[in-house]
Design brief:
By secondary structure, this protein is of the alpha/beta class. Helix content is 24%, strand content 31%. The strands form 2 sheets. Strands 5-4-3-6-7-12-11 form a 7-stranded mixed sheet, sandwiched between helices. Strands 1, 2, 8, 9 and 10 form a 5-stranded antiparallel sheet that branches.
């Protein structure tokens, strides 16, 4: 699959910004993702992201680092030891160009080495799980990368609001997926399109139940203005 996301942010970083990214999911119409927003400062970040960065400590792994905005804040303002990781080669190149000291080009699920006090998964961090059936194994893997007393800071959204509601308050949920938060995500840039890939939005209760099933405590840290939330996962003692 072409790295259209990486190409887009590399174009912006190189001064070749001419158009934005277009996204679409299996349950929503085409939307615009403004590339400048991906390069936002701490002051421009949503409150949930700011809170996660405030809570980060120790050795930090920034999963799905994108342009490195979170990593740069933690590295330069909080003076933390940060490793930025992304599956996108373009994102890795952008992070290096922007001055992130430690950057890995890898899939988090393939990462075998390193031990971290904080693992960050922001901008719908549960998305990388892809489908509900993958959540348990993904949480076990993330837990294996934590130091004793470590934490996973992850955000997501409960997208139940996107489904039609009947007179009794029930929701019309498609039956072709195991869970209503499973969507197919498509990205377009400069006339090219990536094949649809799996993306997962988790409601807090589902995340909490999955965490508990894998011996992780799950604490609701903050709720946003649009069904989004920040959660903290830690190993049950």
């Amino acid at each position: 699959m072409k790295d259209l996301f990486g190409q887009a942010i590399l174009d912006y970083q190189s001064g070749n910004y001419t158009e934005d990214i277009f996204t679409e999911t299996s349950i929503s119409e085409e939307d615009v993702l403004p590339i400048p927003y991906l390069f936002r400062s701490y002051e421009e970040m949503p409150q949930i992201e700011q809170k996660a960065l405030e809570l980060a400590y120790g050795n930090v792994l920034d999963v799905g680092c994108g342009t490195g905005s979170h990593s740069l804040y933690l590295q330069n303002k909080r003076h933390l030891n940060v490793t930025a990781l992304d599956i996108s080669k373009g994102a890795v190149d952008v992070c290096k160009k922007r001055g992130v000291h430690k950057v890995l080009h890898d899939d988090i699920m393939n990462l075998k080495t390193g031990s971290y006090d904080t693992i960050l998964l922001l901008m719908n961090g549960t998305g990388i799980f892809g489908q509900l059936k993958n959540v348990s194994s993904a949480l076990q893997h993330l837990k294996s990368l934590l130091n004793k007393g470590g934490q996973i800071l992850i955000d997501s959204s409960d997208i139940i609001y996107m489904f039609d509601q009947d007179e009794d308050g029930g929701r019309w949920i498609p039956t072709e997926t195991d869970y209503y938060g499973e969507v197919k995500y498509t990205l377009r840039y400069k006339g090219e399109e990536n094949p649809p890939f799996n993306w997962l939005y988790l409601d807090f209760n589902t995340l909490k139940n999955a965490a508990l099933a894998n011996d992780l405590n799950c604490e609701l840290i903050l709720e946003g203005d649009h069904y989004d939330f920040l959660a903290k996962l830690s190993v049950l003692e």
